[in-house]
Amino acid sequence: MFARVVLLVMRKDLTIEVRSREILYTTLFFAVSCVLVFAFAFVREGEPLGDAAAGILWIAIAFAGTLALGRAFERERHAETLRALMLAPAARPAIYVGKLLGILALLFATELIIVPLVALLFAAPFFSRPLLLAGLLVSGTIGFAAVGTLFAAMLVRARSRDVLLPVLLYPITIPVIIAGVRGTAALVQPVVDPAIIVMLISLLVAFDVVFLTLSLWTFEPLMTE
Fold first, then answer.
1. Measured between alpha carbons, how far is 67 from 32 in angstroms, rounded to an integer?
2. At CA 151, angle to CA 111 and CA 94, rounded to 5?
């Protein structure tokens, strides 16, 4: 029953998105615009400044993720869809996981575009170790989205939700973003030390476990109250 509810909620979100493509196009446009602005600022005569690529990549992911989280739950506010989900005879954590998987699918689709774009504009050898890069992106994105999904659901009825979401989200996810930036920066060094990157991926996985556990534990009481 838990898995069925998860799949139904995720399928609902992805079906709406496939038909409208509203969030995907908006998120992609915002992320690409963010990368291009940084490219104009940090690339001089075809040469990027320092190790800017890693930080810019994760800034674009964080900003685009915040936009996607806000827009995803904006839909639930209309026609009281979220209230209907909460009144349904389904496990509340299953609803949370379904929403989380839908948001992760959108973020991963966005990363498929912006990661090659950053690598191209900043001459960053991201794909020299593709498995390590995938580990950093997947573990970091899960940690960011796990907290973001909880806060976005909690703030869906708040008047200042667009302001409150980043105010609450960024301080909590700073460790995830820092670990992602450090790991990605280590990945583009002339001499790559896989042990450091694996250690940072393990740290991100630990954050994922903590954030997911706390979110599953607190989702029902937060949404009920």
1. 13
2. 80
Q: Give the separation between CA 146 and CA 34, rounded to whole angstroms.
A: 23
Tell which wins on pLDDT, 89 or 69.
69
Other C-beta atoms lying within 10 Å of the C-beta of residue 195: 9
> What is the pTM assigned to this prediction?
0.89
Distance CA 49, CA 42 (A): 6
Task: Give the residue among 29, 35, 60, 223 at the shortest CA–CA distance from 144.
Answer: 60
**Greatest CA span in the chain, whole angstroms?**
60
Of 109, 95, 117, the C-alpha closest to 26 is 109
Contact criterion met (CB below 8 Å) for 156 and 77 = yes
Residue 192: the pLDDT is 85
Q: What DSSP line would sit under the chain, residue for residue?
A: -HHHHHHHHHHHHHHHHHHH-HHHHHHHHHHHHHHHHHHHHHEETTEE-TTHHHHHHHHHHHHHHHHHHHHHHHHHHGGGHHHHHHHSSS-HHHHHHHHHHHHHHHHHHHHHHHHHHHHHHTT--GGGSHHHHHHHHHHHHHHHHHHHHHHHHHTTT-TTHHHHHHHHHHHHHHHHHHHHHHHHHHHTSSS--HHHHHHHHHHHHHHHHHHHHHHHHHHHHHHH-
